[in-house]
Design goal:
Elements: H1 6-16, H2 20-29, H3 34-47, H4 49-52, E1 59-67, E2 70-78, H5 81-84, H6 87-103, H7 108-113, E3 115-116, E4 119-120, H8 121-132, E5 137-145, E6 148-154, E7 164-170, H9 175-191, H10 203-219, H11 227-242, E8 248-249, E9 252-256, H12 257-263, E10 268-275
Antiparallel strand pairs: 1-2, 2-5, 3-4, 6-7, 7-10, 8-9
Helix pairs in contact: 1-2, 1-3, 2-3, 3-8, 6-8, 10-11
Subcellular location: Cytoplasm
Keywords: Cytoplasm, Elongation factor, Protein biosynthesis
Main location: cytoplasm
Length: about 280
């Protein structure tokens, strides 16, 4: 029998994110040598990479950081929450975030082509999947710039890494700008707006919402004389739900996000929000 303990199995599982039986088999084959077992797990994982290609990657984490007015955020995915909280997966995600900064990339394809540790990041994705025994993917990234940029990460479960991430930028600096940027980033995480301002909402979507509001009001038998006001009121409700600056502020529902920005003497310039798998 190989010379290893339950503690050795636990330690190697934490290092690799591999299943218990896979770890035990590797330790048996390596006669208890943890480093050799880790190498065997990695080799076997590489052989199974093709089989994993079609698997779903609905778990993972969001990582984000800000440096000198530039905010970068990435979503890195895996198959199970067990791997999502494993040390190797978290370490790999840190590499992805660092590469996103270093490369200057604004899209995933450019990021995956960037060289990390002497090889394209895309190869490290495959190698990490081999080590962990699951399909791993870099799903998306965002890069925004501003005089003040806040990065906010939110855990939906205390046992997992951040599942929601937000970048938010404003055009001013100072304590008031910093506080407003952070508070609104937290708000975005909770309220998930789709657009920054009404100007960003596609004209065809606005017309579709107006038509639906009109048809709904008529189906409800609303008086013709009040139809225009009713339709515009419902359209305003759509904007308050979808447009960041029109939303009621999470910390004080009596104010809109636009009012919070005005009080801080800044304007919102950009935002990005990721939720794992969404």
């Amino acid at each position: 029998m190989a010379n290893y303990t339950a503690a050795d199995i636990k330690a190697l599982r934490e290092r690799t994110g591999a299943g218990m039986m896979d770890v035990k088999k590797a330790l048996d084959e390596a006669n208890g040598d943890a480093e050799k077992a880790m190498e065997l797990i990695r080799i076997k994982g590489l052989k199974g990479a093709t089989k994993r290609e079609g698997r779903s990657t609905a778990e993972g984490l969001v990582a984000a950081a800000v440096n000198a007015g530039v905010g970068v955020m990435v979503e890195v995915n895996c198959e199970t929450d067990f791997v999502a909280k494993a040390g190797p997966f978290i370490d790999f995600s840190k590499k992805v975030l660092a590469a996103a900064f270093d490369s200057g990339a604004s899209d995933v394809d450019s990021l995956l082509a960037h060289t990390v540790d002497g090889k394209p990041l895309s190869e490290l994705v495959i190698e990490t999947g081999a080590l962990l025994g699951e399909k791993v993917a870099v799903r998306r990234m965002a890069r925004i710039e501003g005089k003040t940029v806040d990065a906010y990460l939110h855990k939906t479960s205390k046992d997992l890494p951040a599942q929601v991430g937000v970048l938010f930028a404003v055009d001013g600096e100072g304590d008031a700008a910093t506080e407003a940027a952070h508070d609104i980033a937290v708000h975005i995480a909770a309220y998930s707006p789709t657009y920054l301002t009404r100007d960003e909402v596609p004209a065809e979507l606005v017309e579709s919402e107006r038509r639906i509001a009109d048809e709904t009001a008529r189906a409800e038998g609303k008086p013709e004389a009040a139809m225009s006001k009713i339709v515009e009121g419902r359209l305003t409700g759509f904007f308050k739900e979808s447009v960041l600056v029109d939303q009621s502020f999470a910390k004080d529902a009596k104010k809109s996000v636009a009012q919070v920005l005005t009080e801080a003497s800044v304007k919102a310039t950009a935002f990005a929000r990721f939720r794992v798998g969404a």
